[in-house]
Amino acid sequence: MKEVKSFVIDSSVFLAVVHNEKLMDDAKQYLENSLMSAINAAECVIVLNRNGMPIEIAKELLESLVTKFVFCEFDDSVNIANIKNTNKDLGLSIGDCFCLALGEKLELPVVTADKIWQEAKVNVEIICIR
């Protein structure tokens, strides 16, 4: 039986698929059995709604493509802050740090479309689709 590997995906990966970017085919392979932080899901809904998609449709689209959404626990806040502070020079957003911290916590690779993440000082494998 083929083992299905899980990935933590960043909002940039989801949005690449939704917007049919050239790298969509590369991004799609990571959606099967994917996990996303609730904060990254919020980022996706915000972007889609800003671009004219009703919030309920954006929510349904997220639920149809992402396998599981993970919420932040209070104890995660320390690691999120450490990632943010250790990588000040990279300009990572709080959402970026949530995503990276979730990958570290679950010991799963993190998939993004943001090349700068490859320079981050974190204890997680980063896969960049660009």
Q: Would you tell me which CATH topology applies?
A: Rossmann fold
Spatial shape: globular
Average pLDDT score: 91
User: Beta-strand percentage?
Assistant: 5-15%
The largest beta-sheet arranges its strands as 3-2-1-4-5
Q: What's the N-to-C terminus distance?
A: 31 Å
The CATH architecture would be: 3-Layer(aba) Sandwich
- Elements, N to C (H/E): EHHEHHEHHEE
**Counting H and I runs of at least 4 residues, what is the number of helices?**
6
Low-confidence stretches: none
Task: Give the class-level CATH name.
Answer: Alpha Beta
Secondary structure: helix percent: 40-55%
How many structural units, i.e. domains? 1
How large is the radius of gyration?
Answer: 14 Å
- The count of DSSP E runs of length 2 or more, i.e. the number of strands, is 5
Quickly give the structural class.
Answer: alpha/beta
CATH superfamily: 5'-nuclease
Largest sheet: 5 strands, parallel
Question: What does this entry look like structurally?
Answer:
The protein has 130 residues and is α/β, with parallel strands linked by helices. It has a single domain, classed as 3-Layer(aba) Sandwich (Rossmann fold), CATH 3.40.50. Helix content is 47%, strand content 12%. It is built from six helices and five strands. The protein has helices at residues 11-18, 24-28, 38-50, 55-65, 76-86, 94-106, and strands spanning 7-9, 34-37, 68-70, 110-112, 126-128. A five-stranded parallel sheet has the order 3-2-1-4-5. Helix 1 runs parallel beside helix 3, helix 3 (38-50) packs across helix 4 (55-65) and helix 5 packs across helix 6. The mean pLDDT is 91.
